[in-house]
UniProtKB/TrEMBL annotation:
UniProt name for this protein: PBP domain-containing protein
Keywords of this entry: Signal
Organism of origin: Cryobacterium zongtaii
Signal peptide: 1-23
Amino acid sequence: MISKKAIAFCATVGVTLSGIALAAPAHADPVSNSYSIVGSDTLEDVVSALANGTSITSSAIRSTVNGASIGSFDATGSPYITTKSSGVRFGRPNGSGDGVKALSRSIDGAAYTSGTAGSPVNVVITGQVDIARSSSAGTANANGELMYVPFGRDAIAYAYNGTATDISSLSGSEMKSLYECSVTTVNGVTVTPIIPQNGSGTRKDWLGKIGSSETAMRTVAEGGCVVEGQEHDATTLTTNSVMPMAVSRWIAMNTGASYDKRGTGTLGSMVAGTSPVTGTGTAMVPNATYYSDTTWGRDTYLVVEYARVNSASAKYDVNLAKLLDAAQGNSLTNSQTLITKAGAVKKKFGFLAPTTGVVAYRVAKTA
């Protein structure tokens, strides 16, 4: 890893705060007149709130660059998106891995194919993606073309069907057995495990945290027991089923910050005796003890081309660098919790400040 100083930020170009009342964002995809952001479902609502403008903290906050709006594209929706004016139409990146892949193809000019069913294939998307949302960390590489910039602290728990009271607190080893299909019952209850779609950062983190892997997990398509579905959609829970859940998303669905996809689901804990959240309804907030757990807590990131935030590079983009400067009150990476700061918006969406000492670092492009 390298120091945050590797990202050179210029104090003369502003990420601004809008002083007017901001309407709720439209459901249609944006077309950016500056920077476009794709990727993680976990981060999509909070990043979109900052990009589109929100008054959720009772103070109008919006991240813009010199008055130009930025466009954040959801992980789900139509099979394709167009991110820039007169830009090409390409497959919608669904999840952290797919978003980082799209950013990589935007940098190197190789053809991109999204994991989204029905999307266009082998499309050249040079310059169409500027930032990728990622709920997962990358593998540090001192010569990597990408820069992972800390966004906020999240945690992973799981949602389960509300009638399945005997599966309200399962261990990592029990989850490993369920997702590898070596057992099908826990505490006398037959359990159906659900996993997010390929390319999901939550899928990657969940398997790693329970001590399993893509190879060891057995999906229904592979003759196993694990059902694949869209991450964070607890409306798909069937009787006695479980699915990994970003705690931030669960909080946002309770506070009204995000679209409510809880269905009849309940949030379970992976840390015995410790709830992932405190409070209920609109007063629900992260439980800092759960978030700080070294296994079940996780830091999330915004990913950008390293050269564009490195002042020594010919590709340096001072505006983009400013947008990712955590010292600026309304940048995408700010974590200050005053109601006029972007960090306060993040807390409403279930995020805490990144772990102390976690800094921006370089990662190789996705193949």
